[in-house]
Write a structure and sequence with these properties.
This protein is an all-alpha fold. The chain is built from five helices and no strands. The N and C termini lie far apart (69 Å).
Length: 185
């Protein structure tokens, strides 16, 4: 269990931080501290669990490294569900009864749209945190080492492709393919 926790920690942390920030915004707009804590936990915990789930998919090669489409599809389902749980928990705290939003389908549709932005942020942050974390675990954990080496190979392939493109541009300029601008029009 500890090993699974350590392997999925990047997704858990990224998801939890996103939820806690939302709770912080609740406090920022003047809601009572209790409501802010409930809002932070009610969104932070589901997003943390979903973030850990995404990390497990990545570790088990069910989603590709750096791929936006798989992350977008994952969060298209996960984010609205997390927000629905959040709404239920906050309404329960505030009114004493868990209540669905008035237009639940409209709410879920809107959250689906918002999920694309969340997916971009989650993926961006996860791609910066996770490889560094797995590099730390790689010495003692074979799975972490394998995932880290996949990330390193992916990064090397992207770097090599960019270098080849630069070289082609330089060669085209040198062969007269692209002429530098001289003077004014």
């Amino acid at each position: 269990m500890r090993r699974l926790f350590l392997l999925t920690l990047p997704g858990l942390v990224v998801g939890f931080i996103a939820g806690v920030l939302a709770g912080g915004l609740t406090a920022f707009v003047g809601q009572p501290t209790g409501a802010a804590v409930v809002a932070a936990l009610a969104l932070g915990v589901p997003l943390a669990l979903l973030g850990g789930g995404y990390t497990m998919l990545l570790i088990n090669k069910r989603v590709r490294l750096g791929g936006f489409a798989p992350a977008a599809l994952y969060w298209l389902v996960g984010f609205p569900l997390a927000r629905l749980l959040h709404e239920l928990a906050v309404s329960w705290y505030v009114a004493g009864t868990p209540t669905l939003p008035p237009d639940t389908l409209g709410f879920l549709a809107f959250q689906g749209i918002v999920s694309l932005g969340f997916a971009i942020g989650f993926l961006w942050l996860h791609e910066r945190v996770a490889p560094r974390w797995w590099a730390r675990l790689a010495e003692d954990d074979e799975v972490a080492r394998e995932v880290y080496l996949r990330y390193a190979g992916h990064a090397q392939a992207i770097f090599d492709a960019r270098e080849r493109a630069k070289e082609r541009r330089r060669a085209a300029r040198g062969a007269g393919g692209l002429k530098p601008r001289t003077g004014t029009r």
